[in-house]
Amino acid sequence: MARSSTASVFARAYERNLRALTKATLSNSKRIAGQVQRAAAKRLKPPPGKGDWLSGMAMGPGGARGYHLFRPAGLQLKPGERLPLMVMLHGCGQTGRDFAASTRMNALAVRQRFLVLYLEQDRLAHPQGCWNWYERRSGKADAEAATLMAAIDQACMLYPVDRDRVALAGLSAGASMAALLATRYPNRFRAVAMHSGVAPGAAKSPATALGAMRGQNVPPMPSTAVGKAMGAAAVFATLPPMLVLHGDADAVVAPSNAVNSAAVWATALGAKPGLSRNMQRGKRRSMRVTDFKRKGRTLVTLCEIAGLGHSWSGGASKLLFSDPEGPDATRMTWAFAAAQFKAAEGPKKV
To answer: What is the pTM of this model?
Structure first.
Protein backbone atom coordinates (compact mmCIF):
# COMPACT_ATOMS: atom_id res chain seq x y z
CA MET A 1 0.00 0.00 0.00
CA ALA A 2 2.87 2.34 0.82
CA ARG A 3 4.39 1.88 -2.62
CA SER A 4 1.03 2.44 -4.31
CA SER A 5 0.41 5.57 -2.27
CA THR A 6 3.86 6.94 -3.04
CA ALA A 7 3.44 6.25 -6.76
CA SER A 8 0.06 7.96 -6.65
CA VAL A 9 1.60 11.07 -5.05
CA PHE A 10 4.34 11.21 -7.69
CA ALA A 11 1.76 10.73 -10.47
CA ARG A 12 -0.38 13.60 -9.18
CA ALA A 13 2.68 15.83 -8.81
CA TYR A 14 3.79 14.95 -12.33
CA GLU A 15 0.32 15.79 -13.69
CA ARG A 16 0.28 19.14 -11.84
CA ASN A 17 3.76 20.02 -13.16
CA LEU A 18 2.76 18.98 -16.67
CA ARG A 19 -0.36 21.16 -16.54
CA ALA A 20 1.67 24.09 -15.22
CA LEU A 21 4.32 23.61 -17.91
CA THR A 22 1.67 23.38 -20.64
CA LYS A 23 -0.04 26.53 -19.35
CA ALA A 24 3.26 28.43 -19.18
CA THR A 25 4.24 27.25 -22.67
CA LEU A 26 0.92 28.32 -24.14
CA SER A 27 1.14 31.66 -22.35
CA ASN A 28 4.69 32.28 -23.63
CA SER A 29 3.69 31.19 -27.12
CA LYS A 30 0.82 33.69 -27.12
CA ARG A 31 3.12 36.43 -25.80
CA ILE A 32 5.83 35.71 -28.39
CA ALA A 33 3.24 35.47 -31.16
CA GLY A 34 1.84 38.81 -30.03
CA GLN A 35 5.31 40.40 -30.10
CA VAL A 36 5.97 39.06 -33.60
CA GLN A 37 2.56 40.24 -34.74
CA ARG A 38 3.11 43.74 -33.34
CA ALA A 39 6.59 43.95 -34.89
CA ALA A 40 5.20 42.88 -38.26
CA ALA A 41 2.35 45.38 -38.01
CA LYS A 42 4.80 48.17 -37.15
CA ARG A 43 6.98 47.26 -40.12
CA LEU A 44 4.00 47.35 -42.48
CA LYS A 45 2.57 50.53 -40.98
CA PRO A 46 3.17 53.45 -43.34
CA PRO A 47 5.69 56.04 -42.11
CA PRO A 48 4.70 59.73 -41.92
CA GLY A 49 4.00 61.27 -45.31
CA LYS A 50 1.03 61.98 -47.52
CA GLY A 51 1.09 59.16 -50.02
CA ASP A 52 0.95 55.42 -50.63
CA TRP A 53 3.30 52.92 -48.94
CA LEU A 54 3.37 50.09 -51.45
CA SER A 55 4.94 46.70 -50.69
CA GLY A 56 6.76 44.41 -53.10
CA MET A 57 9.12 41.45 -53.29
CA ALA A 58 11.83 40.63 -55.83
CA MET A 59 13.90 37.49 -56.45
CA GLY A 60 17.53 37.37 -57.49
CA PRO A 61 20.82 35.47 -57.08
CA GLY A 62 20.90 36.47 -53.40
CA GLY A 63 17.40 35.18 -52.69
CA ALA A 64 14.28 37.25 -52.06
CA ARG A 65 14.25 40.85 -50.87
CA GLY A 66 11.27 42.98 -49.98
CA TYR A 67 10.83 46.67 -50.65
CA HIS A 68 8.43 49.55 -50.11
CA LEU A 69 7.75 52.27 -52.63
CA PHE A 70 6.45 55.66 -51.51
CA ARG A 71 4.17 57.37 -54.03
CA PRO A 72 3.14 60.94 -53.17
CA ALA A 73 -0.58 61.51 -52.84
CA GLY A 74 -2.48 63.46 -55.48
CA LEU A 75 -0.03 62.95 -58.32
CA GLN A 76 -1.48 64.25 -61.55
CA LEU A 77 0.77 62.87 -64.27
CA LYS A 78 0.69 64.19 -67.79
CA PRO A 79 0.36 61.61 -70.57
CA GLY A 80 3.65 59.70 -70.78
CA GLU A 81 5.17 61.53 -67.82
CA ARG A 82 7.64 59.62 -65.67
CA LEU A 83 9.10 60.66 -62.33
CA PRO A 84 12.58 60.55 -60.78
CA LEU A 85 13.31 57.74 -58.32
CA MET A 86 15.37 57.96 -55.15
CA VAL A 87 16.52 54.52 -53.95
CA MET A 88 17.12 54.39 -50.18
CA LEU A 89 19.27 51.79 -48.38
CA HIS A 90 18.86 51.66 -44.59
CA GLY A 91 21.65 50.99 -42.11
CA CYS A 92 22.19 48.09 -39.69
CA GLY A 93 19.43 47.66 -37.15
CA GLN A 94 16.98 49.61 -39.29
CA THR A 95 14.11 48.84 -41.64
CA GLY A 96 12.93 50.80 -44.63
CA ARG A 97 10.18 52.30 -42.49
CA ASP A 98 12.72 53.39 -39.85
CA PHE A 99 14.85 55.00 -42.53
CA ALA A 100 11.86 56.78 -44.04
CA ALA A 101 10.82 58.13 -40.64
CA SER A 102 14.35 59.28 -39.81
CA THR A 103 15.22 60.94 -43.12
CA ARG A 104 11.73 62.32 -43.88
CA MET A 105 12.54 61.81 -47.54
CA ASN A 106 8.84 61.16 -48.22
CA ALA A 107 7.85 64.69 -47.21
CA LEU A 108 10.43 66.07 -49.64
CA ALA A 109 9.17 63.69 -52.35
CA VAL A 110 5.68 65.17 -51.97
CA ARG A 111 7.01 68.69 -52.48
CA GLN A 112 9.42 67.85 -55.31
CA ARG A 113 7.32 65.17 -57.09
CA PHE A 114 9.50 62.07 -57.09
CA LEU A 115 9.14 58.44 -56.04
CA VAL A 116 11.12 56.82 -53.22
CA LEU A 117 12.09 53.13 -53.09
CA TYR A 118 13.12 51.65 -49.74
CA LEU A 119 14.92 48.33 -50.12
CA GLU A 120 14.61 45.92 -47.17
CA GLN A 121 17.31 43.57 -45.91
CA ASP A 122 16.10 40.13 -44.84
CA ARG A 123 17.13 39.08 -41.31
CA LEU A 124 17.84 35.60 -42.67
CA ALA A 125 20.47 37.18 -44.93
CA HIS A 126 21.94 39.13 -42.02
CA PRO A 127 20.76 38.88 -38.37
CA GLN A 128 21.32 42.60 -37.69
CA GLY A 129 19.71 43.71 -40.92
CA CYS A 130 23.02 44.87 -42.43
CA TRP A 131 23.68 44.71 -46.16
CA ASN A 132 26.45 42.27 -47.09
CA TRP A 133 28.45 44.92 -48.97
CA TYR A 134 31.82 43.51 -47.78
CA GLU A 135 31.35 39.86 -48.86
CA ARG A 136 33.19 40.36 -52.16
CA ARG A 137 35.58 37.43 -51.73
CA SER A 138 32.75 34.90 -51.30
CA GLY A 139 30.57 36.46 -54.01
CA LYS A 140 27.71 37.08 -51.58
CA ALA A 141 27.95 40.87 -51.97
CA ASP A 142 27.64 40.76 -55.75
CA ALA A 143 24.72 38.31 -55.52
CA GLU A 144 22.93 40.63 -53.10
CA ALA A 145 23.63 43.64 -55.32
CA ALA A 146 22.14 41.78 -58.28
CA THR A 147 19.05 40.98 -56.20
CA LEU A 148 18.64 44.63 -55.25
CA MET A 149 18.92 45.57 -58.92
CA ALA A 150 16.10 43.10 -59.61
CA ALA A 151 13.98 44.96 -57.04
CA ILE A 152 14.83 48.32 -58.63
CA ASP A 153 14.00 46.97 -62.09
CA GLN A 154 10.69 45.66 -60.80
CA ALA A 155 9.78 49.04 -59.32
CA CYS A 156 10.74 50.76 -62.59
CA MET A 157 8.45 48.39 -64.47
CA LEU A 158 5.47 48.65 -62.12
CA TYR A 159 5.53 52.39 -61.48
CA PRO A 160 6.02 55.51 -63.65
CA VAL A 161 9.79 55.77 -63.13
CA ASP A 162 12.07 57.74 -65.41
CA ARG A 163 14.98 55.31 -65.77
CA ASP A 164 17.27 58.21 -66.74
CA ARG A 165 16.66 59.88 -63.38
CA VAL A 166 17.44 57.29 -60.71
CA ALA A 167 19.67 58.08 -57.72
CA LEU A 168 20.96 56.08 -54.74
CA ALA A 169 21.38 57.05 -51.09
CA GLY A 170 22.37 55.00 -48.07
CA LEU A 171 23.41 55.20 -44.44
CA SER A 172 26.28 53.19 -42.94
CA ALA A 173 26.06 49.64 -44.41
CA GLY A 174 23.45 51.07 -46.80
CA ALA A 175 25.97 53.67 -47.95
CA SER A 176 28.56 51.00 -48.66
CA MET A 177 26.02 48.90 -50.56
CA ALA A 178 24.98 51.99 -52.53
CA ALA A 179 28.61 52.47 -53.59
CA LEU A 180 28.84 48.81 -54.60
CA LEU A 181 25.66 49.08 -56.68
CA ALA A 182 27.01 52.19 -58.37
CA THR A 183 30.29 50.48 -59.28
CA ARG A 184 28.60 47.28 -60.47
CA TYR A 185 25.85 49.05 -62.45
CA PRO A 186 27.25 52.56 -63.10
CA ASN A 187 25.07 53.33 -66.11
CA ARG A 188 21.88 52.76 -64.12
CA PHE A 189 22.30 55.66 -61.70
CA ARG A 190 22.80 59.40 -62.14
CA ALA A 191 23.99 60.06 -58.58
CA VAL A 192 24.93 58.26 -55.37
CA ALA A 193 25.03 59.59 -51.81
CA MET A 194 27.12 57.86 -49.12
CA HIS A 195 26.30 58.85 -45.53
CA SER A 196 28.68 57.44 -42.90
CA GLY A 197 29.82 54.54 -45.07
CA VAL A 198 33.07 52.63 -45.58
CA ALA A 199 35.29 53.67 -48.47
CA PRO A 200 34.73 51.67 -51.68
CA GLY A 201 37.24 48.87 -52.06
CA ALA A 202 38.33 48.91 -48.41
CA ALA A 203 36.92 45.46 -47.52
CA LYS A 204 36.33 42.08 -49.14
CA SER A 205 35.40 39.93 -46.13
CA PRO A 206 33.90 40.25 -42.61
CA ALA A 207 37.38 40.46 -41.06
CA THR A 208 38.58 43.23 -43.39
CA ALA A 209 35.24 45.04 -42.97
CA LEU A 210 35.87 45.53 -39.25
CA GLY A 211 39.29 46.96 -40.01
CA ALA A 212 37.86 49.20 -42.71
CA MET A 213 35.23 50.55 -40.32
CA ARG A 214 38.06 51.57 -38.01
CA GLY A 215 39.80 53.28 -40.93
CA GLN A 216 42.63 50.73 -41.11
CA ASN A 217 42.23 49.53 -44.69
CA VAL A 218 42.84 52.40 -47.07
CA PRO A 219 42.00 51.61 -50.72
CA PRO A 220 44.75 52.42 -53.23
CA MET A 221 44.60 55.96 -54.56
CA PRO A 222 46.61 56.07 -57.82
CA SER A 223 44.43 55.96 -60.93
CA THR A 224 46.04 52.69 -62.05
CA ALA A 225 44.80 50.99 -58.88
CA VAL A 226 41.27 52.37 -58.81
CA GLY A 227 39.98 49.41 -60.78
CA LYS A 228 41.27 46.99 -58.14
CA ALA A 229 39.77 49.08 -55.35
CA MET A 230 36.30 49.39 -56.84
CA GLY A 231 35.88 46.66 -59.42
CA ALA A 232 36.21 46.50 -63.20
CA ALA A 233 33.16 48.70 -63.69
CA ALA A 234 35.16 51.70 -62.46
CA VAL A 235 37.61 51.22 -65.33
CA PHE A 236 35.27 50.53 -68.21
CA ALA A 237 32.34 52.82 -67.44
CA THR A 238 31.73 56.30 -66.11
CA LEU A 239 30.73 56.27 -62.48
CA PRO A 240 27.84 58.47 -61.33
CA PRO A 241 28.75 61.60 -59.33
CA MET A 242 28.95 61.06 -55.57
CA LEU A 243 27.95 63.03 -52.47
CA VAL A 244 29.80 61.96 -49.31
CA LEU A 245 28.49 62.95 -45.87
CA HIS A 246 30.15 61.93 -42.61
CA GLY A 247 30.37 63.16 -39.02
CA ASP A 248 33.78 63.83 -37.55
CA ALA A 249 32.57 62.36 -34.23
CA ASP A 250 31.51 59.02 -35.74
CA ALA A 251 32.67 56.25 -33.37
CA VAL A 252 31.27 53.40 -35.50
CA VAL A 253 32.72 54.13 -38.95
CA ALA A 254 35.94 56.15 -38.86
CA PRO A 255 35.60 59.62 -40.46
CA SER A 256 38.71 58.91 -42.55
CA ASN A 257 36.46 56.72 -44.70
CA ALA A 258 34.72 59.84 -46.00
CA VAL A 259 37.99 61.38 -47.21
CA ASN A 260 39.03 58.07 -48.78
CA SER A 261 35.64 57.60 -50.47
CA ALA A 262 35.78 61.03 -52.05
CA ALA A 263 39.40 60.58 -53.12
CA VAL A 264 38.88 57.14 -54.71
CA TRP A 265 35.72 58.22 -56.54
CA ALA A 266 37.22 61.51 -57.72
CA THR A 267 40.35 59.73 -58.98
CA ALA A 268 38.22 57.34 -61.01
CA LEU A 269 36.32 60.26 -62.52
CA GLY A 270 39.40 62.40 -63.12
CA ALA A 271 38.12 65.16 -60.82
CA LYS A 272 40.37 67.49 -58.84
CA PRO A 273 39.64 68.98 -55.38
CA GLY A 274 38.99 72.68 -54.99
CA LEU A 275 39.38 74.79 -51.86
CA SER A 276 37.39 73.62 -48.86
CA ARG A 277 34.83 75.98 -47.35
CA ASN A 278 33.06 76.06 -44.00
CA MET A 279 29.28 76.27 -44.02
CA GLN A 280 26.69 76.59 -41.28
CA ARG A 281 22.96 77.24 -41.38
CA GLY A 282 21.44 78.81 -38.29
CA LYS A 283 22.28 76.84 -35.14
CA ARG A 284 22.82 73.55 -36.95
CA ARG A 285 26.19 71.84 -36.88
CA SER A 286 28.80 73.33 -39.19
CA MET A 287 30.43 71.37 -42.00
CA ARG A 288 33.48 71.59 -44.20
CA VAL A 289 32.61 71.16 -47.87
CA THR A 290 35.04 70.20 -50.64
CA ASP A 291 34.03 69.93 -54.30
CA PHE A 292 35.95 67.80 -56.78
CA LYS A 293 35.52 69.04 -60.35
CA ARG A 294 36.35 68.06 -63.89
CA LYS A 295 35.97 70.63 -66.65
CA GLY A 296 33.99 72.88 -64.35
CA ARG A 297 31.44 70.24 -63.34
CA THR A 298 31.21 69.03 -59.73
CA LEU A 299 31.47 65.24 -59.75
CA VAL A 300 32.20 64.60 -56.06
CA THR A 301 31.20 66.63 -53.00
CA LEU A 302 32.61 65.83 -49.57
CA CYS A 303 30.77 67.14 -46.48
CA GLU A 304 32.55 66.65 -43.15
CA ILE A 305 30.09 67.53 -40.38
CA ALA A 306 31.37 68.83 -37.05
CA GLY A 307 30.27 66.95 -33.96
CA LEU A 308 28.03 64.48 -35.78
CA GLY A 309 28.11 60.85 -34.68
CA HIS A 310 26.91 57.77 -36.57
CA SER A 311 23.56 59.26 -37.54
CA TRP A 312 21.63 60.70 -40.46
CA SER A 313 22.37 64.42 -40.37
CA GLY A 314 19.28 66.57 -39.85
CA GLY A 315 17.11 63.52 -39.21
CA ALA A 316 13.95 63.35 -37.12
CA SER A 317 14.43 63.62 -33.36
CA LYS A 318 14.15 60.75 -30.86
CA LEU A 319 14.96 58.07 -33.44
CA LEU A 320 17.98 55.78 -33.63
CA PHE A 321 20.79 56.85 -35.98
CA SER A 322 19.14 60.24 -36.47
CA ASP A 323 20.53 63.64 -35.44
CA PRO A 324 18.20 66.66 -35.78
CA GLU A 325 21.03 69.11 -35.04
CA GLY A 326 23.00 68.35 -38.19
CA PRO A 327 22.62 70.03 -41.60
CA ASP A 328 19.75 68.61 -43.64
CA ALA A 329 21.26 65.58 -45.39
CA THR A 330 17.90 64.75 -47.02
CA ARG A 331 17.68 68.13 -48.70
CA MET A 332 21.36 68.01 -49.72
CA THR A 333 20.99 64.51 -51.15
CA TRP A 334 18.02 65.46 -53.30
CA ALA A 335 19.62 68.76 -54.40
CA PHE A 336 22.77 66.89 -55.47
CA ALA A 337 20.76 64.26 -57.37
CA ALA A 338 18.54 66.87 -59.03
CA ALA A 339 21.63 68.77 -60.19
CA GLN A 340 23.00 65.59 -61.79
CA PHE A 341 19.66 64.87 -63.48
CA LYS A 342 19.75 68.36 -64.97
CA ALA A 343 23.40 68.06 -66.04
CA ALA A 344 22.69 64.75 -67.76
CA GLU A 345 19.94 66.37 -69.85
CA GLY A 346 22.49 68.72 -71.41
CA PRO A 347 21.81 72.29 -72.58
CA LYS A 348 18.26 72.99 -73.69
CA LYS A 349 17.67 73.65 -77.35
CA VAL A 350 16.54 77.17 -78.17
So the answer is: 0.84
